Amino acid sequence: MGYFVKLNEQGIVQEAVSTSGQPEGFMRVVVDQPSDGEIQTPVPVTLYELSNMMLVEGILVSRPKSPQPYSSDGKIIVPPCSEGTAINVFDQTGQEVMATIIAETDDHEEAFEFIDPGTYRVEVEAPFPHVPTFAEVIIE
Questions:
Q1: How far apart are CA 64 and CA 87, in angstroms?
Q2: What confidence score (pLDDT) does residue 38 get?
Q3: Could you read off the pLDDT tens digit of each residue along the chain, which spans 140 residues?
Q4: Taking phi first (over 0 means left), then psi (-120 to 50 degrees means alpha), and beta for anything else, what does residue 11 get?
Q5: Minimal CA–CA distance to 71: which of 138, 140, 3?
Q6: Where along the chain do its domains lie?
Q7: What is the largest CA-CA distance in the chain?
Q8: CB within 8 A of 87, min separation 6: which ones?
Q9: Nearest to residue 14, comparing CAs of 36, 43, 39?
Q10: pLDDT at 33
Q11: Where are the alpha helices (DSSP H) in 1-140?
Q12: Which residue, 54, 95, 97, 117, has most beta carbons within 10 Å?
């Protein structure tokens, strides 16, 4: 068994699989020096980690994460993020989108305070190639 990846034109992992034979169009993932049909990661990774990687100077590395929101005293704080970052606020209990904000400048910050009982989620997605992040808070 081994891990195999298919990259798109920008070098982003499009598909990652674990199988005994090399699927057509995929490259084997190795930690050692790669040979033909292989691609290197600096350390052993899981299949999930592979799905969020990109090729940089011939080596698969983790894509950068969007700024990580965090909860504090019933609020969710979004730290400074870059222009074009999407911030989505969801009421998980009521199953509704409460807000969608696109950062118009760099260093954009937000703080959301929730007073009604429920579960709330804030997702942050910086421009490509960043991986989205999220935080949840439960108000009782």
A1: 17
A2: 92
A3: 899 999 999 999 999 999 999 999 999 999 988 888 899 998 999 999 999 999 999 999 999 999 999 988 878 999 999 999 999 999 999 899 999 999 999 999 999 999 899 999 999 999 999 999 999 999 98
A4: left
A5: 138
A6: 2-62, 70-139
A7: 58
A8: 78, 81, 99, 100, 101, 102, 103, 110, 122, 123, 124, 125
A9: 39
A10: 87
A11: 47-50
A12: 54
Q: 54 and 130 in contact (C-beta within 8 Å)?
A: no
Cβ-based neighbours of 4, under 8 Å, separated by 6 or more: 16, 17, 18, 19, 22, 23, 26, 27, 28, 29
CATH fourth-level superfamily of 70-139 = Immunoglobulins (2.60.40.10)
How far CA 53 is from CA of 26, 29, 34, 77, 133, in Å, comes to 15, 12, 17, 27, 15
SS3 75: strand
pLDDT at 26: 96
Q: What pLDDT is recorded for position 1?
A: 87
The angle at the Cα of 104, spanning 99 to 105, to the nearest 5 degrees, equals 130
DSSP per residue over 9-34, as a string?
TTSBEEEEEEESS--TT-EEEESS--
Q: Are 56 and 63 in contact (CB under 8 A)?
A: no
